[in-house]
Amino acid sequence: MTVTRIDVDAGGSYPVLVGQGLLGQLPELLGPRAEKVLVIHPRALRTTGETVRDDLRTLGLDAIVAEIPDAEEAKHIQVAAFCWQVLGQSDFTRTDAIITLGGGAVSDLGGFVAATWLRGISVIHIPTTVLGMVDASIGGKTGINTAEGKNLVGSFHAPAGVLVDLDTLRTLPEHELFTGLAEVVKTGFIADPAILDLVAEHSKAEIAEVDGPVLRELIERSIAVKADVVSTDFKESGRREILNYGHTLGHAIEHKERYQWRHGAAVSVGMVFAAEVAAMVKNLPTEVVDLHRELLSKLGLPTGYRADVWPQLLETMKRDKKARGSMLRMVLLSDIAAPATVEIPDVSILHTAYQEIGEESPRVPLGGDLGLRAK
Ligand code: GLY
Fold it and tell me: pLDDT tens digits for 120-177?
């Protein structure tokens, strides 16, 4: 199986390697100076985490694991403090390294620990979700959540490398795979129409095939776009904002759902909303708005949300922006692959757009396990 290498130049140069059975590439990425390695993994990946640790030991490295909570529970200051304690008690020096194994929450937390230990040590990400592969592990954003909000504390800390081993997707629940693909479709709309063609031309089963060519091409194309965007705007002073397409309403839905919805499911609704806004303010052709619904529904992703909660969603969107010291801004398309950040002076436009996606009854998106919500 061939290995694809995509280079990133954002806060340092590093490769993203895509393929299968890639763990053998770790020593080269770690470099000759690392003696100790901390593998940070969530509870759900205990067996894989221990396998990685044992492989590293076989290679002569002093490897240990730190098991942390699953998903967003990981992004807590107490979890970071636990990792700092492990590093301190094991005498990790500046030349030692961290490996994160897991989804976006693990690379966010592990990247933050690496960025802060001794003012910055090496980190290598091994993402095990589609979302982690195409988004969270690339670009050096790290962070934890506080009582005041998500990702308010963090830093930009580029990894030494990213290993995208498609074999890790074999055990990923199907709804995780498809919600991760929402970010892939996002990348298609903002920058790479070939992604949209691939989704349109193949069946859901073909797209989900871990050993098939479609999923690999979708992932590689998305990584290439992300690598290019962050390489031109590492600290998000301009172009990187396009990666937030669909996230303005998406974040508000996640907040409303108390983070029980998958990020990609919320972004899916957010993209349809953004397309409806763009139809009004950027003359986005109706066919492109329709294409959003067609492709996202094909993947089983939600394209609408509760009509009755608009005032709460608007409040959250305004608060989110206030926390970042700006007006309500959205990434909007004037066509496929033609995104721009637009300030929204008149929120009545948003209300009109929301009426196009508002649904009468609450829905449970993708996977019965998401029906945990308190209503
Ligand atoms: N997830 C968006 C970014 O990395 O900028």
Answer: 999 999 999 999 999 999 999 999 999 888 899 999 999 999 999 999 999 999 999 9
Q: Is the CB of 240 under 6 A from ligand 1?
A: yes
Tell me if 263 CB under 6 Å of ligand 1.
no
C-alpha span between 307 and 359 (Å, rounded): 5
Which of these ranges, 133-147, 218-232, 265-279, 355-369, has the smallest mean pLDDT?
Answer: 355-369
The reply to whether ligand 1 has any atom less than 6 angstroms from the CB of 135 is yes
Residues 6 or more apart whose CB falls under 8 angstroms from that of 150 comprise 72, 75, 251
Q: Beta strands 4-9 and 13-19: pairing type?
A: antiparallel
In the chain, what is the straight-line distance between the N-terminal and C-terminal CA atoms, in Å?
Answer: 48
Q: pLDDT tens digits for 55-64?
A: 999 989 999 9
Quote helix, strand, coil % in the chain, to nearest 5: 55, 20, 25
Place of tokens 């933050």: 112
**CA-to-CA dists, residue 281 to 194, 198, 318, angstroms:** 26, 29, 19
Distance 54 CA to ligand 1 centre (A): 32
Cα–Cα dist 327/319, whole Å: 10
Please state, as a whole number, how many other Cβ atoms lie within 10 Å of the Cβ of residue 328.
Answer: 17
Cα-based distances in Å from 355 to 150, 300, 305, 360 = 28, 21, 10, 11
Mutation pick for ligand 1 pocket among 141, 151, 229, 245 (CB with most ligand atoms within 8 Å): 141
